Every structure is written in structure tokens, then in C-alpha cells.
Amino acid sequence: MIKIEGIAAFVAVVESGSVSEAARRLRMSKSVVSERLADLEKTLGGMLLHRTTRKLTLTQDGTAFMERALRIVHEIEEAAADMAERRGTLAGPLRIAAPVTFGRMHLGPALYPFLARHPEIALTLDIDDRRVDASSEGYDAIIRHGPIADSRLVAWKLSRSRRLLTASPAYLDRHGTPATLSDLDDHRGLFYTNRGIADWRFQTPTGAIVVRAKLAMGINNGDMLRDAAIAGLGIALLPSFIAGPAIREGRLVEIDVGYRPEAESVYMAHPQGRNPSAKLRAIADHLKKAFGDPPYWDPAG
């Protein structure tokens, strides 16, 4: 008979890419995960994974089994959570990915009181600026800032957002304050590399215009991008949730070039085709209220 524990171990190994990472996620030893995986393969009568010293890859049988194994694990987790929710309790595992700076500055402080009120939710929060694949990497949802490009995701808007063109007072004293989009061509730009150097997009009556300032520095972290702007290294296009406090404190100045950057939002998205759980909906509703409308971090608000 196939044991559910073996299926769960197999899914965790495939999603995480290694036995050691699967063991960390499941909170058990590597030897136990390996034993459960071996027992599953013995019961099924075939190899599910190719094992080398460097990586694990699915066999043809493993690829076929993985699709159903995912459904089985997800259905069991949801069934257990549904029973708890019928008793008026939000419970069960939940895995969410979110960007580093937003997670540290706003998501964490908003989530902590919610989780304290619902101690039976087992939340795994992965903080990473890379664009994760919610469907293939086993996330219940992702939280992101910006446009929604993946058509396989169903998005819930958590908050309005906008990006602000900012620089330090010292930088503007040295280089002058740009007043038009064309003025930006002569300025030093600080760019968030996860979105590329063509990231400065402004909405005009004739459509979107991309502005490319001179590259002074590219950074893949929002905190460091803000700090580089505060240090006077150049102009940065920052989300208001990062720039807001620095603008209110006078360490950064918002620059008006006649047009606003393209509108964006903070959103939670879950894979299409999955029925989102009550606990995921409850977290989304809580975050909407916690962030406010307009959001509390917006300097204009």
C-alpha cells in the first residue's frame, strides 16, 4: 500500500530540488526523507528520480507520477484545512513567496498579528526578489509589486501603488533638478536590475515612453537602491512603499518631470485552476485592511 508520507516526501524533494532542502521544509532528518522516498519507489516498482552528486532529476515514471502526487498532497492538506475551517478555525500549511524589501518593511509587520490570532496556520514565507513560478514551485500564492505578466495566475489587488522618481537633495544641488523627460537623459540613473534598464516607463497622452538615463549603478535589492539614492549616487525610480519614509524625513526628494510613471499595484496571486483556501482569502482580506487605501506608506497619503 502506498503511504501518504512517501508521496509527501517525493513532492517536497521535487519542489525543493534536493533531499536536504525537502528535509528542512518537512522538519525532519535527511535520512527519514530518503527512507520514505525509497519505500515509495519500492512500492511503485520503479525509479522516480535520477540521483547524482550534483542534482536530482525526474525519471519518465517520476514525471508522470508527480502530477498526480501534487494533486493528492494538495487535496489532503485542503481536506484537513476544510475540516478545521468548518469548526471555525483557520488551520493548515500555507506557502507564500514575497519580495525582500516589501516583506521586511510591510508584509511581516502586517502578518504577525494575524498569525498570532490564528496559531494553527503553518505559514512558510519565502522572501526572495527573484520571480518565482508559483505553479511549478509549489506556492499557494505569491505577493508582488508591479504589473501582472503571468496569465496562469489569478491576482487579488492588495493595495494601490505608485513609483516615484527620487534623488537626494545633495545630488540635485550638484546636478540640477530635471524638469522634463528629456532632461533625464543627462542624469545618472540607479536601476533595479530585476526589472532591467528599460524600467523607467512614463505614461503620456500618446502612450508609454521609456527613458534611459546614464547607468550609474544597477542593484537587485530595493533597500540598497534607496540607500544609493540617499547617498547621492543618482536618480532612482522607487516604489512609494520604499521611498515614502525617506521622502517624509527629507533624505529623498520626489522629482516632477511632468508625467507619472506607469501605475502599478501590490497584489497577491495564486495559480489558476486552484481553489484558494479560506485561510489564503482571510490573509488577503487582512492585508488589504492593514495597508489601507491609500496605503499608509504613500507620502502623499
TrEMBL record:
PROSITE patterns: HTH_LYSR
Pfam annotation, one family: LysR_substrate
Domain HTH lysR-type: start-end pairs: 2-59
Gene3D superfamilies for the chain: 3.40.190.290, Winged helix-like DNA-binding domain superfamily/Winged helix DNA-binding domain (1.10.10.10)
UniProt KW Disulfide bond keyword: no
BP terms from Gene Ontology: DNA-templated transcription
Single annotated GO MF: sequence-specific DNA binding
Stored InterPro entries: LysR-type_TF_proteobact-type, LysR_HTH_N, LysR_subst-bd, WH-like_DNA-bd_sf, WH_DNA-bd_sf
Alphabetically ordered keywords of this record: DNA-binding, Transcription, Transcription regulation
Family: Belongs to the LysR transcriptional regulatory family.
Function of the molecule: Transcriptional regulator of the ttuABCDE tartrate utilization operon.
Full protein name: HTH-type transcriptional regulator TtuA
Organism from which the protein derives: Rhizobium gallicum bv. gallicum R602sp
Lineage, opening ranks: Bacteria, Pseudomonadati, Pseudomonadota, Alphaproteobacteria, Hyphomicrobiales
